[in-house]
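Input/output pair, single chain:
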Amino acid sequence: EGSMAFFAAAPKLAAVLESVCANLAPAAAAKSVTIAKTIPPAWPASAFDRSRLTQALTKLLGQAIAWTPEGGRIIIEGRPGPAAVEVRMASYPGAGAPAGAGASERADADVSGSGLDLAIAQQIVELHQGRMTMETGSGDGADVMFQVTLPLQTP
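Output:
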């Protein structure tokens, strides 16, 4: 069984999220998908492995882009709290697209590797003693929503 190296440091989580969004902007633009972010610049200091966390968030945003239908939007929210930080990514259909359009489009698409991407992201989050959830068809109209909760740890 393989293992994953983990190097804790104190990166700025806001900068990690901004970097992930910038790296995947071309993939979103290719589908005319808008990425809206609410990322507070000030986060509590915590120990994260920047490289691994970037990898996990990249995989999740990549999945959100894949789930989002042409012309849709993804909303990313960062929520710092007293004991944990939370990152929420939700995919919404575009104007005129019925709710669930991304899910049906995704069912017809070649999604090889997507399960592996989610498994890797979950393993990375768990290495940080965090929790990752995925929900489809949420009550607020999102086709898919990923939520990552990471406990604050002393850097």
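The longest strand covers residues 84-92. Residues 100-113 have pLDDT under 50 and may be disordered.
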